[in-house]
Design goal:
Order of helices and strands: HHEEHH
Number of strands: 2
Structural class: mainly alpha
Helix content: over 70%
Number of helices: 4
Strand order of the largest sheet: 1-2
Distance between the termini: 15 Å
Radius of gyration: 20 Å
Length: 97
């Protein structure tokens, strides 16, 4: 990758990554809840026994992680609104487009 493309691509990648990463525990909590027949919500821990352990509170916490994505989304959109034009500008001025 050309040196002039690294920073805008990195900015766009990080902007997407910071929104997607908190969704992984949420999806995992929903998967575990459905697998073991438990109710998962962000309102509070509902008893859920998995392999002899009550993981209801943990699943509730993991299920609420999507709120972090919602709060970070505007920052991520700002990063993309800066990174994509920066990338296009660098491609036009320094690339062979």
């Amino acid at each position: 990758m050309q040196k002039y493309l690294k920073k805008p691509v990195l900015l766009c990648g990080i902007s997407i990554l910071i929104v997607v990463l908190p969704l992984i525990p949420t999806m995992l909590a929903v998967f575990i809840g459905k697998l073991f027949g438990c109710v998962v919500n962000e309102g509070g821990g509902i008893p859920c026994v998995v392999l002899g352990l009550d993981v209801g509170n943990m699943l509730s916490f993991m299920g609420a992680m999507f709120w972090i994505s919602l709060f970070i989304l505007p920052l991520s959109i700002l990063g993309l609104l800066i990174g994509i034009p920066w990338l296009i500008f660098n491609l036009i001025t320094k690339g062979n487009v």
